[in-house]
Structure formats: structure tokens, C-alpha cells
Protein: glucan endo-1,3-beta-D-glucosidase
Organism: Holothuria leucospilota
Amino acid sequence: MEGKTNPKDQFESEDDYGGYNQKSKSKNSSTTIAIVVVAVLVATAFALVCYFGFRDTSADPPENSIGSPEPETDICQLPPEKGPCEAYMPRWGYDPVRKECIEFIYGGCEGNGNNFETRESCTEYCKDEDTDVCELPKEIGPCDGAMPRWYFDPSEERCMEFIYGGCEGNENNFMTEDDCESKCGDMGGLPPTCIQLQDSVYSMEDVTDLFGPSTLLNDVCPPVRTGNLREEAALPTGHFASNQINIGPSPIRLFPHSAIMDKRGIIYESYTLDRWTDPKRTDEFYQLTPGKTDMPWEKIPSVGAGMQQTNSGPDGTPLSTFSGLTGVRVGIENSSDAVMTDFDIMYATFMYHNEHGSLEVPLVRGAAMLTHIFTNANPVITPYCLTAINGVDASFECPEEETKADKGTAYVEVSCNSNTGILSLVVHTTKPIPHVTDVQWAATVSTGWESARYMNTCDSNICTLSSDGMTVTLIIPDAKDTMNYAINIINMLVIPQSDYSYWYHPNPAVVACSPSPAVTISYSGRMPVWFYGTSTITTAHCLGNNISDAMVDVVLSLSSPASSLDEIDYIFVTDDEWTADHAWIPCSPDVCNIIDGGMNVVFTLIPTSEISYFAANVHGQFIIETEPWNWRRQPRKIQCPWVSETPQDISITDKSFIFELQEPGNLDMTNTRKFMAYFDKDMTVTVNDDGLFEFQPQDGGHFTGHMQLVYAGTSPMGDNSIAESLHKYAGVYSYKPKTRFCVEGDIGFISYDWNKQGDDFFGQNPNQDLLTVALPHHEEQLNSENLIETPWGFKGHIGDRWVLQEDLPKASIEPDQDAVERIKNDEDAVRLNHLLAAIEKDAMFETLVEDCTREGAQSYWAGKSIGMVTRLATISRAFGTDHYKKLDESLRTCLDLWLGIVGGLPIENVLRYDQVWGGMFMRSAGLEEEIYPWTNFGFVSYADHHFHFGYWMYAIAYYAKYYPQWAMKEENKVRITSLARDVGNPSKKDRFFPTVRQKDWFFGSSWATGIGGGARQEESASEAINCYHALGALGASMKDPVMEAFGRLMTATELRATRYYWTVRENNRHIFPEPLQTYGVLGQLQEDGIFYYTLNWECDPDQFPQRHACIVGIQLIPIMSISHWYMDQEWAKNVYDVCSWAIDPVSAPGGDMIDQTWDTTDPVTTRWGAFCQTIMSKKDTASQADAIAYTLALNTSDLEPGSGLASNLLFIYEST
């Protein structure tokens, strides 16, 4: 016990110990007090004599040890002693039997040295090197408090939460999980010397007053299903569960399942790896693919085509969406809507309640088994397309999800012969027409168009469809003079359609009749998909008591208003069988009524039997689809209320249930899809009055326990072998896993501690192995011995945690100094002179101050400009020119404005703090302009924040490095840090901003999408890299080691994901569909598909093969000093061909056949050609020479805004 501090005798005041013998106080209390004082003084004097006479001061108890020490005695082995006095003084003493400090009451005098003011001082002095606090049992203590604490459970070998009463207990009691882990655990398997990041913050300051508050998002994009979470912290906007708490709910991607919620429960569909490459899911579209000379409808796919690889819908409808109409729903009867109660990086927990109990749904990314925790509530399961349950025949409705298939485009050969009176329309489509009755036409003499422009359904008298469905010929009689015409191909396109004008008025197509007519060609066009509206049947009821007084009432809701009944057709039949031969009936006033400004159409129909079928067709400016979309196979069925169906007689008792489902849209019953449901006790399933499958404990009552669901693949009907292979993992699950980050030197680590829970349901898993799912990029980071094959295509991982390791790029945004010196030291100075000339050109061209003060939403465009100037300034400094001086002045002007340090920006560009979700907000529109979720690339709804702010942080990182006095001013620092907190906050402890707003740690990449609805997607992986690289650089400049480390780690994971999911290489070629294996790059990655197109980037010429350069280019902007981490020789070889075709279109296969009337063989503009040249230069020395020559011939104005000649040239020369 050597080395302890010297003691000091302490005299306690009367207030400290509450007064001596307060119960006996009387009028003589002053006398009593005097006696007490004397007694204390005597006792103290005795203690001093004992102490100085007998104790070695090197082994003294601490200063706040109170009692009298014994000579040459270890005070920690003495029993805590009250002493003879009667004061009431709570003290702490070490109990040598229990081997822990306990509380006792000290009388105020004498006693011994085992007497401490605090538990901490007692523990510090008397700690037993042989005692492990982590082995101590959990102790709540005798008090009645409710303090969340953590203790280490040696049997579980992990830290667990418990409720501490507030007093006594033992030392196995920690404030946080990380405190517990640091003492008793292994910190999720991370190196103990690492810098931990997940509980660190850059700041916790409320910046509302600094920037000013905004609540506009309450009107634009309010949160849903979030309960009281916003009171505790900022809400997540890019989290996987954000898909279910924003205004446009879309599926959550969990791997290997998707999930979507409604008030009836949560619906699951499979989400397997084979969907990424399945050719049945590859949908090419040819709107931008040129055609052959004189036959523009004969497309030349070999030069390139847009494409999507859909991965949402089941295999029976491979090009469909998933909106909750397939798969299996799990819920409870009469439940409330779901509410998110907790979330973190890898999980989100939702709760459903009903009058009896609740259903907790702990969603975890990568969890193989979907776990559901029921409390006093019976599970209700909806298995769509059911054919059997545990081998017993059963059935359930089998709706089809809406298709996402491209609708194609069309060319029309038109002629009108006045001699024969024939109008000939030959329609050539790029996608096959399913049935001739899908074609509708309107044609009349121009003077009669207003009164006779209704659509006619094609029949054999007028229309002939080719065997391949690609051509339909219409021979229309009674043509004369000048004819107006229009064509609607249901669910595909309208002709004409240009500039978003209606077909019917005032812009029909026109052709003049003549005795010797020439054939002219018109083009349908097709507006971008996001401009199309939707039509939805919101009401479809049969009213009345019997068929004699029955009436069917249908309400069709439109997202774009109809202005005339001419736009709307319908089919209403009451036959027992629906066929494709029913003609569309134009709406008439006695049946149809347009209300609500054209947003709703009410149909009033009279049925002739108890079951009716209905479909509607809306054609016009935006909406050209039917409702329902698959009206041929599944029209809306309307059943009168007095007709009831006999429920299925099913009663099965078991702990496991296998649901065999047929494929929607595919009646081939050879194979069925399997979903397994596992329970922790025997359950009996029956079919309730609503036709749903209700599960009840075998002994009755309501269920409290666990249920798991898992997709078990597709196999022959009755073959359960794949499903049975998953039995052994049933019962064990991940619950609120802990994600940790740490950095040590140039190595970063990510730990997923899955927090394993549950039990082995079937006695097949004695070690309670936990099965999780690894994505392709995880495989090389995990121990191969723990990886297994699964029915989902993804590898499975057996283990309680993952530890992933990353090599970290440098935080600096400066060009590599060694590369700069090589250029400076060239004997001929050719490269140096080229770069100096490029610096001069760029400096003369830059317009930063003009760009950052321009009206209109400029956070992105001004951001690109400030990024370009910053990169140029770093190059200027590296090569010793003085251009940076003026550039720095421009940077300061714009940074002061945009950070709000000085005023003067237009209102649309002023930063505010959004109090609705929590984060930085910019109105992005004038005060009189309406704000939409997509305004300013969606920035107002938290889309693209990492893109926009990435450029600004890049500039601030540079400026703060060279002008630290500006950056470190208190208010400036808070403003600067707010941008970092918005896109790169590492911890939930900062309650004003969500953690890593756009980053998906499990997938590795980021998502640009915010809270405006729709599937998460991103177009530019390189701009995400730029953001996190800038974050690390900003941390270095601001002397914030956490920000620097976290930025580097985020950059490293973004780079890995970019290399694996955005750029085609030999190690990942197998996960891309065939067209992308040829093209070498993605255009856009969505959670429900892989795309080869760009959403917001126009190309010039906007066609293939030139468009290849634009798709490659958006994965390169901006060129950075670390771009070489993915812009390397291997990838250069894989995009070299498509870049070459873009620059020289005739060189593309089939390029010499391009029709020059409709398309062109002009090269892609230098704006995008220059990007292609930068990556092509990495292929070989000849390609590098070509890229140099190309770039030297340009001016800065020839480049895409935000790019610079010096930047491109430096990267071409030295990859920095």
C-alpha cells in the first residue's frame, strides 16, 4: 500500500455532521456543545499523537480519511468503526470480506482510518489488485432511485444496462456503456490504444440564435412516426429508417430483406444479391440511343443505352416496385401506426400498440433473422400469394406491384391520301406493346377536333399489331383536308407529347391530305419519369342492401389535374370473368364528375351482379397510365357488402411455420418462395374473420414472447431443405447493436458489436451462434473462417461482432509535395511551364465573388466555384506563384458572407437552423416563391447536404490553415463547426445534429436523398468523397483531432465503397449487370436499382455514345489530391472504350450508322470530354500524352464549372 498521500486530521463543523445529539438539545445546549468540542479536541490530539508516533508517513491514508489509524496496520483490513460519539455522518469504509467499499454511519469521533468521505476516495485507496470489480455481481442498492447504469456481466461477457437505486451497491456500476467497456470489456474488439470517436463531439452548442431559427419544414417535409424523439435529439434524415419517417415512405433495405410499414404492420420482401445481375431485371431504354439512317426507330444499342437494374420486386414481376403488396406482413390486430422509439447507426426500433399489448420491431441492418417482440398481443400475418403453410394447402390474395419498366418511345410514319380518304399511321415503338387494345387513337378533320377528340380503342378493323409487338399500323378512313390525330399507348406513351403539352388541345399532331402524300416521321418524345403523375383509386365501394338497389362509387385521385372528361376512360363490367376484350368507355357527365380542381374524378356506376371489376385510364399531359396498372390481369375487384366468403378451415400448432408463396404474375407452381416464421413457444395458427392468419399460444390468451421471420429462398414446392438449414439460427438475434469507431495512426477501425440476445429455439445451436449478412465489400475485411453460404447470395457471418479495418488517406488537401518537386525538377521544365500557364488561365477566369453573391439558390453552384478556387490556391502555393493572394481575398469575401459572419446574401442563400428535424437549412427560394422538397436539388429537404457543404468545408479547411486567427475567433469557429456537425457529426451526444447525415456505414457509401420521399439514391460518389476528405482537412486546420480522424475514416470507407460499387474492376465485375460490365461505371445507385443515366446532368450532345463521358464525369468531380485512390489504371482501362467513343462517336461500334437527321456524330463537349481525358490518362503513357495535348488546347471556360485546367493537368501528370 505504498505511495498513498499523507493524511490530515479534519475537524468537522457542526453543520457537517448535523450537530451532536440533536434530539437532546435543550436550553442547556450551549453547555453540551462545549463538552462536545472538548471531547473532539481530546480525541483529535490523541489521534495526532498516535499518528505521528507510530505511522510510517509513506503509507498514510488519503487526506479525506477521517478516523484514527492503528499503528502499523493496513487500515483497509480494519472494520469500519462508528466510534463512541453520536453524530450522524455518512462515510465510506472498505469491507475486506466483500472486497468493496460500503457506506456506514460515523459518530464523529475516534473510529479508525478506514473512514472516507467519498466512495471514490475509498476505492482509490483500498483497491485490491487481486479484486476484479468486473466480477462483482450487479447490485441495485437499497434506495428507490431509477438511474440508468451499466455493469459487466461475466457470464455474458459483455456490459449490460440496469437500473441503479442511487445508493450503496458496488463498483461494478458505470455511468455509460463505454465506461464499462473501457474497464471490463474489450471495446468491441478495437485496439485499446485507439482514439475512440463515437462518443466524441465537435461541439454541443445550440446554434439557433446564431443563425436564426426556421420551422418551414413543418409545411414542406414534416416528420412522421417519430413520437417524442425530436425532444431528445435531432432526427435522422439519411438513416436507413428515414425511409419510413418522411413524407414519402419507401422501403427500408435491411439485407437480405426489404421492409415497409403501414398501420396494419410491417411487410417484408426478399432483397437478394442475385437481383443485382439477373438479366430479367435488366431494363435498357433507348430514348438517348441513336437510330439508323432513315430508320430512327431501329436503335443502335452497341453505341450505348440507358439502363436500370431493378432489385425491389419479386422474381415473378422482376421489373416491379415493392410497396407492400408482396411478401409477408407481420402485425397485431387493431394496432396504431408504428412509432420509432430508438435508433442508432445500425438499428431502428419501432413500436405498434393495440388495446391489449404491443409489438416491438427491432430492425437491424444485416440481421439474417427479422425479430419481433410481442407483449400480450397475438401476431397476425398476411402472407401474400400463399399456396401452403406447413404443407397444408392455403391461399391468400396475390396482387401485383406496379412495374418500373421503361415505357419506351415511338416514331410515327404518317401519310394522308385525299384520293382514298385514308389516314395511315405506322407506329414504331422501342418497347413491345402487349396487346393491340392497349393502343388508343383519336383522329378527325382539324375543324372538328374540339367536338370529336375522344379516344377510340384499337380493334382489328383499324389496327394491326406486328408479331413482335414493336409496330402497330392504323388505317383510319374518312380522312380529308387537314387531319388532327393523337395516339395513346396505355401505360407507355402519348403521341404527340412535347413541352409537356396535352395531346388533345391545343397541340394534336397535324397532317395535310394530298393526292400523292409523302410519308413524314414524327417522334413521340417522352418526358423524364419524375414529371409523370400518378392515378390512384382511393375509394371503390358497393353501396346498398341487395343487387336491386346497389350502386358502385369509385373515386380516382390524380397527382396532376384533369381539366376535361375527354382525358378519362373507364371499364366497368360485372361479368364473372374479366377478359382483355372490353373496350374503354370515354367518360360522360352521367357517369363521371371532376371535382377538387381536377384532382379527383368520381364515377357513379350501376352493377348488375354482386362482384364488379373496374379500371380507369387517364391520358394527357402527365398521367398516361391506368389504375390499376396491371388492369388486364388484376382490375379493381369490387364486392358488395352482403356477399361474404367462407373462411379457410386451418388450424396448425407448431413452433415453426413455413409459408410457401407463389410468384406474383407467375402462375407456374413448380417453385415457391419460402418464408419461415419461428416462435419461442408452441403457437396455433387459424384464419380469422378478415381472412388473416392469427397466431395464439397453444394454451390460449395473448402472446408474450419472440417471433422471427426469414426469407428462405426459392425451391420446388414442398422442398423445405433450404428453409430447414436456417432452423439452427432461430432464436438468437441482434438487439440495438453498438457501433464504434477508432483511429490509430494511419489505420482506422469500425466495430459492430451486435449485442446478441435470445435463446436457441430448437436445441440445434448450443453456442448460440449469431448469423448476420455480409455485403460484398465486407468479405475481404472479415475472417473467411466465419463466412458461410446463404440462400440470399450474400455471405453469412457467424460471430458476435465485426471489426473492420481501413487504411486512412491523409487529411491534407494540398497537392503531394513529392509530386510537385518532381515537376519542378524536370530538366526541360515543360511540365512546369504548362502548369504555370494553366494557373494563370484559371486565375484570370475565376469569378468566385460574382458566383457567391448571385441571386437564386447558389449553395451548389457557388460551392463548385469556391472549390475550384481553393484547389487553384493550393496549386499556386505549391508551385510558388502569387496568384493565391488574390484568390484568398475572394475566398474570404465569400466565406464571410455564406457563414453569416457578415450580411449581404439574398434571402434564399442565408443559412438558418432548422428546428423541425435538426440541422442547417437554407430557404433556397425567394420569400414569394413556393418551396418544394426538390428545391435546390432537394437541399431544403436535406438532400445533397454533403455535396453542397463539402465544397464549402474544403474551402474553409484551406483558409483556416493559413489564416487561423480568422478561424479561431469564437463565433467564427462555432459557425464553421456547424457545417461539420451537419454532415459529419460523430455522436448522438450532439443533440442538435444527427450523426453522419448522409453516410451509410453498413453499405459504405453515402446517399444523397433527404426527407423528400422516394428510395435513397446518389449520383456522384466523388462528391461524397470530397465532403469527407474536406471534413478531415477541416479538423486538421481547426486543431480538432476527433474531426480530423473521423473525416479520414469516413473518407476511407467512402473510397472502398466507390471502388466496389461504383467502378467496375476485376474483383467486383461479377456483381454488376452485363451492360455495366461493358461500360465500367454506374450513373446512379439507388436502393431499389442500379442505373446507367444521370438525373440532373445534361450532356451535349445529349445522346449516346457522347453521354458516356457525362456518366463517367460525375464520378470524377471534383478532381482532388486524393482522387488517385480510385482514379487508377485498373479503372481507367475499364472506361477507356466508352470515353473514347464519346470523344469520337464514329469510333463506337455501329457509330458509322447513326442517323444524321435525328442524331449527330459530333464529339461530346469539352466540359465532359476533359473529365474523360483525366481518367484515360492513367491507362498508359500514350493515353497520358493524348490527355495532355487535349487539355493544353483548352481554356478554363471550356470546362465544367468548378473545374480548372491546372487541377486537371496536375492530376494527369502526377495523380495529385
Q: What stands out?
A: Residues 591 and 1216 are 69 Å apart (CA to CA). The chain has 25 helices and 57 strands. Residues 1-64, 499-505, 527-531 have pLDDT under 50 and may be disordered.
